Amino acid sequence: MIAALNRVRTTTLALSTAAFIVLSAAALAQEAVRPSLDVPYVPTPPEIVDRMLDMAAVKASDYVIDLGCGDGRIAIAAAKRGARALGVDIDPARIQDANDNAKQAGMTGKVGFRQQNLFETEIQEASVITMYLLTSINLKLRPRLLDLKPGTRVVSHAFDLGEWRPDETAQIGFRHAYLWIVPAKADGRWNVQTANETFELALEQSFQQLSGQGYFGGKAVAAYGKLRGNDIEVKLVDGLTLRGRIEGDRIQATQDANWQASRIR
User: What is the pTM of this model?
Assistant: First the structure.
């Protein structure tokens, strides 16, 4: 009788050990395929989501890409405003959550989610980029963001883009949201024609900030200015202010001003 009980105990122990080994192996295998995350998952509060989309003035004609979308709340909120929206996250668990949340919100088919490394995501067609990452990740993304179409809006919760200062900052409680408008390329030499004169304007660009000189014959006059997307404003210290819109290699005046400029190659 004792021998039989010992055999039962031995068999039970062996089965338990085998089951533990199998479950442990499965857990290790699942952990092995889970991607390494550079940014911890922390959801953006709803009031911050709304403020971010307000700052970017998201509308039905926009294409919003949320980098590091988590549970999909920003992309879903953008889709509710009529925009085409895509959320990207490397974590398959978050993509599952996002799809579940889209279904619950009745937005399936109106918003998309993709499991992908955000550094490999094609973002050129976006008119709005939203992010809640880390400054270190933002800085790695910055060259790609600056290469987007002028006027593209970039909104970040909490973390900035280093020396590229935001065009707008919002404070909601103890949290911050930042907006950048991708600036046009304005650096270089321009031939400026006004109603009264023609002169050369040489500009240097640091993100949306401009500095340089205007050359009137043999006289150099300091100039400074700023960009907001394609819109440019340059002030010369002699009192002349130029406001216009950059379209490739030309600047057309705005506000009924009589001037234009063309880039000197």
Answer: 0.86
In one letter, which amino acid is 122?
Answer: E
pLDDT digits (tens, 9 = 90+) for 166-182: 999 999 999 999 999 99
pLDDT digits (tens, 9 = 90+) for 237-254: 988 999 999 999 999 998
The structural domains of the chain, ordered by start, are 46-181 (3.40.50.150), 188-264 (2.40.128.120)
**Total Cβ atoms within 10 A of residue 236:** 20
Helix axes 92-104, 73-80, angle to 10 degrees: 30
Q: How far apart are CA 76 and CA 85, in angstroms?
A: 7
Task: For residue 214, give the nearest of 232, 231, 234, 229 by alpha carbon.
Answer: 234
If we measure between CA atoms, which residue out of 209, 210, 208 comes closest to residue 229? 208
Rg (CA), the chain: 27
Dihedral over Cα of 170, 175, 179, 180: its sign: positive
10 pLDDT higher than 80: no
176: left (phi over 0), alpha (psi -120 to 50) or beta: beta
Residue 16 burial (CB < 10 Å; 0-12/13-18/19+)?
Answer: exposed
